[in-house]
Design brief:
By secondary structure, the chain is an alpha+beta fold. The protein folds into 2 domains: 2-44, no CATH class; 50-85, no CATH class. It is built from 4 helices and 2 strands, in the order ααααββ. A two-stranded antiparallel ribbon has the order 1-2. The longest helix has 12 residues, at 2-13. The two termini are 38 Å apart.
């Protein structure tokens, strides 16, 4: 389905296709509220829906003070983290 969209848009707007060149009314031709492929079926907040599948783990946070500033209340924080896929049997951090 994505390939079909690319081919149709490329034939209309040229290749490569830029999102800035595409008017919303073009999408509404196929993705109207009454069609089986309405916007609610093809565009949704995947981050929100899939957030429960992932867990962000902070491995470490290291504060490096700026030696030029006294007192050393300013500096750089380096954070090391990884993302676990909770749908797999073993988290990536183990």
């Amino acid at each position: 389905m994505v390939y079909k969209h690319i081919v149709e848009l490329a034939s209309t707007f040229g290749n490569p296709v830029s999102a800035a060149d595409i008017d919303n009314s073009l999408c509404a031709n196929c993705h109207s509220a009454t069609s089986s492929w309405g916007a609610a079926q093809v565009h949704w907040n995947q981050n929100e829906e899939n957030a429960a599948k992932y867990n962000v783990v902070i491995d470490s946070a290291i504060f490096t003070p700026d030696a030029a500033i006294v007192p050393t209340t300013k500096g750089k924080v380096t954070v090391t983290y990884h993302v676990d896929d909770t749908t797999t049997a073993m988290p990536s951090g183990t």
